[in-house]
Amino acid sequence: MRLIIFLLNIALIILILTHFLQPHSKSDSSKRPRVPAAAKNDLYEYDPNHLSQTQPTSTPESTATPIPTGVYVMRINANGVSLVSTDGRLWAQDKPYSENSYGYFGSTLTANGNCSPRGVNPEDYLLYDTIRYGMFMDYKFDLPQADTYHVTLYFTECHHNPGESRLFKILMQGSQVDQFDLVPLCVSPDGSRSLLTKSYDVAITSDNLVLDIGFQGMNDNAEVSAIQISGTQLVKLP
Question: What's the predicted TM-score (pTM) here?
Fold first, then answer.
């Protein structure tokens, strides 16, 4: 009987030692799902981490379509410096287009107005009173993936007066999507000015990841004050 108890104790000790001496697997951080990094605060160059993190509080000049967290977003202050608008949106400095980036392309000119558009916070005049214009100009954006992108264009008319005209076309990927006269849409009969926004959805395929927004003047130069591009799908990080 004593022998049996002795053997059982030996077996129990061996079992305990085996449990504590065997190696335990460590967690492999490389197998953890990747979490998108926070969006950079300098959208000067295209970067896959230009992802929407939060949706600004709704204001008259905010985009009408909510931007989900984790999708591509890019905003340009045409003929302007980088800034943060009063609703918390970051706008990148304007610049010529270069590969793997964004910018204007073609023969363009710039102007600074003094529109003071109605319904816009005065602190945001610096965003909407800067203008890039030309008879034939484009803005190009190198995008991270195939997706349907929501394009919002912002316009002010700081130079023409009531009864005058600025008629031009908007093209997406070389095809006309709109045509309008900016003056009656932005300038009231009493001469007061307002902000105009135009929105378009553009399908981008994997064989051409460059978004091309074209502006063609008809009876005068086409112009734009600011541009916002946002995707609809989560960006797939490499």
Answer: 0.74
